Amino acid sequence: MIVGGIVVITSKNAVHSAMALISALLAQSGIYLMLYAPFVAGVQIILYAGGIMVLFLFVIMLISIERTAKERQFNKQWLVGIAAAAALGGLFIAVYTKGKSLFPEGRVTYGEGQNIQDVAALLYDQHQGMYMFSFEIASLLLLVAIIGAVVMAKKRI
Amino acid sequence: MHGMLEISTLHYLVLGAALFLLGVIGVLTRRNVVIVLMSIELILNAVNLNLVAFSRYWQGIHGPGALHGQVFAIFVITDAAAEAAVGLGILIAFFRNKETVNVDEVNLLKW
């Protein structure tokens, strides 16, 4: 997964980058399965590796890639960017070393139970479902995104 | 199986932090807009990994029905889909106007 991520940000060709991202996403869905989250793993494969990456590949094919592969790949601020990312990494390492005792150790051990049913209960159930409103907001967000994408990709409105 | 072989929540958090850093480096240094968007997807995935790992941890405290982290991960995936659609729409409109996909040639708002 880390290897896939590294290839995503270093490869010259955007298609190679997309392929590496797909492999990273599939590896991550395997990690979801390790965490007993089969529904999220399935959503990850279908939506990310299936839907979003097809969209990415479609756009990569739509715009010309032959020319961009020969150009300079990194922008002029790459040194500053690396420095900022290194600062963030230093922050992460500082948090890790300072607050190591605060992090949860050990692991949870029991079977997977009814994962999909429980997720659905949280989303839709009338009594314990507390994310119903958020769900509706998410559907509204998707509607707005659809309209926005169509409006922006259209030649003449 | 004790000691080094045991995978705890902490290991997932470290993996998520590493993935987040890769995404940040990609966003800050690459020129190609498509790869910048893919790096944003990497960042979102790092966040998702943290959410699901903490959901597992929370399950250990509050029982198997406490899946709030997974529900949030699904919302984040929804947002990622919306973001990808809008971002690629912007990219197509931009490419039609300027015939380039490099972020440092986007200077309409610069003076």
Describe what this molecule looks like in 3D:
The complex is a heterodimer of chains A (157) and B (111). By secondary structure, chain A is mostly helical. In chain A, 69% of the residues lie in helices and 0% in strands. Chain A contains 6 helices and no strands. Chain A has helices spanning 2-10, 14-34, 38-62, 78-98, 115-124, 132-153. Chain A is extended, with a radius of gyration of 21 Å. The mean pLDDT of chain A is 81. Chain B has 111 residues and is mostly helical. Chain B has one domain (8-100): Helix Hairpins (Orthogonal Bundle), CATH 1.10.287.3510. Chain B has helices at 9-29, 33-62, 68-98. The longest helix of chain B has 31 residues, at 68-98. The N and C termini of chain B lie far apart (62 Å). At the A-B interface, helix 1, helix 2, helix 3, helix 4 and helix 5 of A face helix 1, helix 2 and helix 3 of B.
Summarize this entry quickly:
The complex is a heterodimer of chains A (157) and B (111). Chain A is mainly alpha-helical.
Q: Tell me about the biggest sheet of chain A?
A: none
The fold-level CATH name of chain B is Helix Hairpins
How would a textbook summarize the main sheet of chain B? none
The whole-angstrom Rg of chain A is: 21 Å
> What is the number of helices of chain B?
3
How many domains is the backbone of chain B divided into? 1
In the CATH scheme, the class of the largest domain in chain A would be Mainly Alpha
According to CATH, the fold-level topology of the largest domain in chain A is Four Helix Bundle (Hemerythrin (Met), subunit A)
Number-wise, the strands of chain A total 0
Which second-level CATH architecture of the largest domain in chain A applies? Up-down Bundle
Structural class of chain A: mainly alpha
